[in-house]
Automatic annotation (TrEMBL):
Gene3D superfamilies: HAD superfamily/HAD-like, Trehalose-6-phosphate phosphatase related protein, domain 2. NCBIfam families: HAD-SF-IIB (TIGR01484), T6PP (TIGR00685). Its cofactor is a divalent metal cation. It comes from the Eukaryota. This is Trehalose 6-phosphate phosphatase.
Length: 377
């Protein structure tokens, strides 16, 4: 650690997670705008800190915790089993603490619907990991027939939108429902419900496309990345129309840093595009100020609920990109964000669900509750 500037985060352990993050500023990987960060279990870091002191390293306290892209890519991997029984106990404590802060939306169902009595619920649903399971091949992330039926029932009782990083064309082929709003490309492509005419053709209603001018650039970058990543086994470039995704779910972990560096090198020639981290995916989007949170606000405005106090937006999602929508609901102090996750994560959501099967159960109960309240009126 000699001759390196090391930054140590002083952030309090989140939900009992006993870790410390450090940054090594002269790392060759992700230089300039991407400093290298490493996260260690607290016990292990104390030994490293002692060794650093012996080498007279320069330690600076940082105001917040950050991770490098490669560390972030590892964070989106399946959790690994730990051999230490002490760590296992700590994990259980972490999960207990987390579920207290973000209780199950199923166990808190009555609380949620009581807050919605006499108000209009508007449903916002992510797709991958929320309505469909996460799969190795993103082209095979099919929604089940039962889930499709549940979403259709939800749309019959509440205005409903699917907000996804996928292109609208692709997610519509998966969902096959015309009764809902679709916000594709992280909300940069929004369409309203459609009706088929007598000739079986769909009358699509485009509501908003703030990144239309970026289409030629994105198509060009897709081709470049396809060429530059084709020698990395398992890498997949997906064109989502107004953004693109580089999937690394099937890439050997030893090649993740190489893949990330390839993507970063391509983007140096395209400053109008930015790189974001998703769940087992590197996502490239235009630098415009638009995300899933902005899409949520736009749809509420389109539905006439922009300033209404009688609306309860409910957003269910599993990805980091969904945090933008959760944050908007927090700022509005209106509605609920529900994170889909089996493991503790820092989030702006209010509640949690473990997987798509629990999402389906929650949506079914919501429809049943609505039918009952309508019958009581």
């Amino acid at each position: 650690m000699t001759n390196q500037n090391v930054i140590v985060s002083d952030r309090k352990p989140i939900l009992g997670l006993q870790t410390i993050t450090v940054s090594v500023s002269n790392s060759p990987l992700f230089s300039n705008s991407f400093p290298t960060y490493f996260t260690f279990p607290r016990r292990k870091f104390l030994k490293l800190l002692e060794a650093a002191d012996n080498n007279n390293s320069n330690l600076v306290v940082a105001p917040k915790i950050t991770t490098s892209w490669v560390d972030s890519m590892r964070d989106s991997s399946p959790t690994r089993l730990r051999s230490s029984s002490l760590d296992s106990v700590s994990d259980n404590d972490d999960k207990t603490s987390w579920i207290v802060r973000f209780p199950s939306a199923l166990s808190m169902f009555d609380e949620i619907v009581n807050a919605a009595k006499g108000k209009q619920i508007v449903m916002f649903l992510d797709y991958d990991g929320t309505l469909s399971p996460i799969v190795e091949d993103p082209d095979k992330a099919f929604i089940t027939h039962e889930m499709r039926g549940v979403v259709k029932d939800v749309a019959l009782h509440f205005p409903t939108a699917i907000v996804t990083g996928r292109s609208i064309d692709k997610v519509r082929r998966f969902v096959k429902l015309n009764e809902i709003y679709y916000a594709g490309s992280h909300g940069m492509d929004i369409e309203g419900p459609t009706k088929e005419n007598n000739y079986g053709q769909s009358n699509e209603r485009v509501l908003f496309q703030p990144a239309r001018e970026f289409l030629p650039m994105i198509e060009k970058v897709v081709k470049i990345l396809e060429e530059k990543t084709k020698w990395i086994p398992g890498a997949m470039v997906e064109n989502n129309k107004f953004c693109l995704s580089v999937h690394f779910r099937r890439v050997d972990e030893k090649r993740w840093d190489t893949l990330a560096e390839v993507v970063k090198s391509v983007l140096t020639d395209y400053p109008e595009l930015k790189l974001n981290q998703g769940r087992k995916v590197l996502e490239i989007r235009p630098t415009i100020k638009w995300d899933k949170g902005q899409a949520l606000n736009f749809l509420l405005k389109s539905l006439g609920y922009e300033n209404s106090k009688d609306v309860v937006p409910v957003y269910i999602g599993d990805d980091r990109t969904d945090e933008d929508a959760f944050k908007v609901l927090r700022e509005r102090e209106q509605g609920f964000g529900i994170l889909v996750s089996k493991i503790p994560k820092d989030t702006n959501a209010s509640y949690s669900l473990k997987d798509p099967s629990q999402v389906k159960e929650f949506l079914k109960r919501l429809v049943e509750w609505k039918k009952k309240t309508v019958g009581e009126e």
